[in-house]
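Deadline looming. Please check this record:
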Amino acid sequence: MKTLKWSLLLAITGIFIFFSSCENTKEELNGKVDFTVSFSDNNLLKSVQADSINADGTIIDTIYYWHLLVSIADENGANVYDDEIIPMYAFGDQFVSEKLSMIVGKYKLVKFMVIDPYGNVKYAAPLEGSRLAYLVNDPLPITFEISANQVSHLVPEVLVVTGSNPDDFGYASFGFNIVRPIVSYVMVVDDNPLYMRPSMAIPAILSVYARDGWHYDYKLTAGINKILIKSGYEYFKVSVKNPDYPIYEAEISAKEFINSSENSPLIFNLSGQQPPMTLILQPGPEEGKDAMITDLNPDKNFGDHMYFVASYLTEPVLTVMRTKNSLIQFNLGSLPKSARIESVLLTVAFERPVWDSLWSGLDDYMLLNQGLVLQQIVEPWDEYSVTWSNQPKTIEANQVFIPSMDALSSNIRTYDVTRLFIPMQEIAAPNYGMMLKLSQENIIPGGWSFASSDYPIKEMRPKLIVKYSLY
């Protein structure tokens, strides 16, 4: 009988130890996730807080009544948290949420909203494929992973909710940056003063490009159109297309878009006015003026160089990073003295993007995502004496951004460089040509190599197209 009792006691003890071990293992397989919200607007920060006050007027504590509403699904699509309400607490200039405990594994944030003390949704993260998804870099759902005994921090991008419908948004991610899109009003017209008829609003496709590769195509109706543009850029390249008119291309500042209104829209005129006169310059090795400079050989001149290049690459022999920039200047002496420049286009051609074999294993997107910039040279320079050490000064005002390119498409590219010849910002600076640089110098390996005026194939040399009228 004693033997039976001891057997039962040992069995019960074993079962207890087994379940305790399982419980400990289960706890070890748990992780947590939280959300951090940062408001850059101090007034907004004040508006989301309320103070508990003693009878004598002293502050007891600061209480925040804003909440997050999130939905999280596992990798199979099953809901783990469905419309979970999470309180937020102030921490300096930011808000942090309570932590959610989750089992180790992979998950997706499928809904993310910020709710004010009155139950109103003020911010929401758009879902991929939704109408407003193009305004953020990473729409929902966002995939994340929970690791054992660790806290995951997520930072999704959200948009301000201003009279939009829930269908316009999707909901995702942890800790977020607030994106406030530019609200602009635009209209496309045919307004030719040479014809005896009133101006006419016409439909068109407006394509807006930013220097980091972001772009969006807006289908405009014949009238005033309200559009939302992703913020964070100073200038945009625009292209306006209507099959019955020539393509309109220009560079528009964010300020111009912001200053537009329903009563004073930004107008694009596609009218077929009498075309201005055109000067085309495409000099060869003898007449052309361009040179390459590099920090690897700071005192060496490369006046006769086949390529008009900007790059940041590994030097294969010395295994050090080198930077290459290029200068070019066209002779506008053949323009009539009474000429008024209307537009200036630069056409260049490339064989391939440039990067060292050391970087050939990297993702092409990293390399092709590096944009370029053309800056105005404001000091004289000589093609056969310019070096990295004595290079002329340039200015960023009115610079032209060249966004990332697809190496598989046409190798002939044309860019609007009018702003370098007709400054959008009034500056008292002379023009001695253009310098080609990477838009993010000494950061991302890669670059682009165009043909220079010394290139043996004539059709691939740089070409400047100047359209002008006479006073």
User: Anything to note?
Assistant: The two ends are 120 Å apart (CA to CA). The first strand starts at residue 30 and ends at 38. The mean pLDDT is 77.
